[in-house]
Amino acid sequence: MRPSGRDLSELRPVSIETDVTKHAEGSCMIRMGDTHVLCTATLEARVPPFVKGSGLGWVTAEYGMLPRATNTRMRREAAAGKQGGRTVEIQRLIGRSLRAGVDRVALGERQITIDCDVIQADGGTRCASITGGWVALRLAVNKLMKAGDVISDPLIDPVAAVSCGIYAGQTVLDLDYPEDSEAGVDGNFILTGSGRLIEVQMSAEGSTFNRDQMNQLMDLAEKGVSELVALQKAACA
Question: Domain Exoribonuclease phosphorolytic: where (predicted)?
Answer without folding.
Answer: 10-140, 157-224
